[in-house]
């Protein structure tokens, strides 16, 4: 029996049709809902009568626009919510699905009964108060003075939603504790890799004298833990391993000219030749080494898709389970700890091969968008059915 196709209104601060925003996550969430949940209508991202403010903010440099935009949208929510409610009244939806931007739901009054669901990899307060937020300096002057106001708005939005779909146990546990939420409406559903499913990887050999390929993927060398990854490379080479590091997405000055580092400043996965190279680089890699501070990390899902174990820090909601698809080291771990973990793993070729297999299995079972879409589709249909009963 075919499953019910829900009518879903999709709400975010940027269109999911632009695959560049939110590292492609916004687009993947939208697409998974279309495949597994129902017919999706993207609501306008304009701010109604306040839209001149939105356009002025978008004209600022990204460094400031990123942080000012959502705060301004939150402050103007009583005005913006009127235009969102008007868009909802143009049809009759089963679900209002919010992604990434909690502020779009603030002050919104439902024009008729519908299920409100929301997903993101963090809330501003959980992020700022975690080791992730503490690792970065304040960009917007006086931004922290607004923390109390922001947290009160978050609590209203999250408590007022019918369903919260968090990709990590870290965010689930933090929001349950911080906002006193009903546990029955909080669900852990991991996000997936923002790539097409790659073929099942061929076995990679490890052993004395064989090249050992490390990979780091990201636009911000510092934020992704690049200096630690580079220092890890040097430690491994001093220990006698033929280690090499490939960097995709940035061009770090300190790695320029290093004969054991290959740099690809940018690979556009929409270009077939560059997408093929991207896949080849993953296919030959033995480890993703990315000691970054982030709330999730799509790169770790992509590594799992290629059967490449990830080495990262146990911060935020990184989708890495120890001994399953890699190892998450304690916060503050440096090159010595990462190098030691790699040496211990490659010293056991059979164990490494098993780790690669379980890494791919983690992608097949959990870290892909079809798994997310199927689970969320079921949850939404159940919620709509309960509301209609």
TrEMBL record:
MF annotations from Gene Ontology: glycosyltransferase activity
Source domain of life: Bacteria
Keywords (A to Z) from UniProt: Transferase
SUPFAM superfamilies per UniProt: UDP-Glycosyltransferase/glycogen phosphorylase (SSF53756)
A UniProt-annotated Pfam family: Glyco_trans_1_4
Protein name: Glycosyltransferase involved in cell wall bisynthesis
Source organism per UniProt: Salipiger marinus
